[in-house]
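Aim 2, interim progress: modelling of the adenosine monophosphate-bound target.
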Amino acid sequence: MGPPGAGKGTQATRVADHFAIPAISTGDIFRANATAGTPLGQEARRYMDAGEYVPDEVTNLMVRHRIDEPDAERGFLLDGFPRTLAQVEELDGMIAFTGHRLDAVVVLTVDAEEIVARLLQRSEVEGRADDTEDVIRRRQQLYAEETAPLVEVYRERGLLVEVDGMGEVGDVTERILTSLDPIPQS
Ligand code: AMP
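Predicted structure of the complex, ligand included:
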């Protein structure tokens, strides 16, 4: 977890590689579908381009199918999911069904000023339609309203691992792996 621009995608790939499990990014799956023009992608694009969340029913179903793929059997790292309280509940149900267990929830903490700079830079590099200033602001607002409360939910469950997301990519990865080290893997 972490606000837009915290470096979730970059870190998710690196951490998942370390554990030899897939990084499952809901944003990436939506973007791939949008590019391919699938019905899911066409629906998701309307929300993504405006910085809004894709409806829970659509997102949940997609994650349910994805974690059922053979490569996720020994475990997976979710990037960008859950983002709402309803998704937290759905995830609980999904993994109860597949027999997985949540080992940890990593939240990257970052400085708000740095985030906007990172996102504007990413918009130049990647050309993401949701990296304009207005949309960035909306995504940050949604994160604060809908997603930040999940941090407390997972803290109460004893699953939260808070990591400083500022600085060099490699340093942040090291911090995450060091924080995860004492946690037993299911
Ligand atoms: P991300 O790449 O994680 O920043 O996600 C990009 C966009 O995809 C978000 O702004 C949402 O529109 C959509 N999205 C990704 N994950 C979710 C989710 N868990 N719930 C709802 N919408 C999502």
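The longest helix spans residues 133-156. The mean pLDDT is 94.
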